[in-house]
Amino acid sequence: MQASTSNRLRTNSWYRTRKEIGNTLFLLFTALLSISFLFPFVWAISSSLKTGFEVMAYPPTLLPKVPQWYNYVQAWQEADLGRFFWNSAIVTGLSLIGQVLSSFVVAYGFARFRFPGRELLFILCLSGLMMPVYVTIIPLFTMFRALGWINTFKPLIVPTYFGSAFAIFLLRQFIQSIPLEFDESALIDGASRWTILTRIITPNCQPALATVAIVGFMTSWNAFLGPLIFIDSAKNYTLPLGLWFLKGTIDDGLPRDHLLMAGAMITTFPVLLIFVLAQNYFIEGIVMSGIKG
User: Fold this and answer.
1) Domain annotation covers residue 80
2) Are residues 20 and 90 in the same domain?
3) Has residue 293 been placed in a domain?
4) Which residues touch 144 (CB under 8 Å, ≥6 apart)?
5) Which among 52, 106, 130, 192 counts the fewest CB atoms within 10 Å?
6) CATH number of 113's domain
């Protein structure tokens, strides 16, 4: 009996040791993976604080000898990033309002109303997720040119008021996780569908709405292809296009890569700030959207 107890203890000890080794290896792997993902961002920040010759030096160095904080001021002034920042703010703000409102209303209809062809329409809506943007860019350009919208912000803003396939899908899944009894009780009390949408569904959908807003903000703020195709005048450029003015070399032949990195960091900062402040809503919205539906 003592031998049996001893063998059992050794077996348990071996399992615990193997589990601890497995957990340690897993943590080590995730740490290395995190470092590999963060390294390009750290390199960009470091390069934005170097001189032009330090960025081009070989072998490369990770940290600048003396941080050049004036690079950010110089990049802002040379590329007129203030104008481009304002243009991006206008396009992103108006696009965000249109995408969230239109997608929310359509998602509510798919989640709560029963009508012929609902599932087919929803499948057609989701097909937009599988269609590359390059397939539609030429027809859109032709249409917007006929409307006289080229070199304006309209091609970047107006389409968002017709909803987003991803946003509709995410919001529909989240709305379906809200008990239908809430709607039925409100209808019995005499509430209209609009009242149900604004006073019952909306407060309960805050995490999903925040997720859609974050994704929509990042998509619109970082958009490059749309502004490149539809905007001709430099005064209407958004930030991703405005960074072009920091590319190449200065008139005296000095490299400008450090200024380009500083401009990229200025462009990235609002996205990082929004994500950090709303990351809890983002995670909750993604998790809860898969509970039902």
Assistant:
1) yes
2) no
3) no
4) 150, 154, 155, 230
5) 130
6) 1.10.3720.10
Q: What is the pLDDT of residues 46-73, one digit of tens each?
A: 888 888 788 787 787 888 888 888 888 8
pLDDT level of residue 199 (50, 70, 90 thresholds): confident
Residue that is written with structure tokens 């405005």 in the block: 242
Structural contact between residues 153 and 91, judged by C-beta atoms closer than 8 angstroms = yes
Calculate ∠ Cα 278-100-225, nearest 5°.
Answer: 90
- Number of structural domains the chain divides into: 2
Expressed as residue numbers, the domain containing 172 is 71-288
Structural domain contains residue 56:
no
Residue 63 lies in a domain: no
d(C-alpha 243, C-alpha 221), whole Å:
13
- The per-residue pLDDT for range 239-286, each reduced to its tens digit, is 888 888 777 655 555 677 888 888 888 888 888 888 777 777 666 656
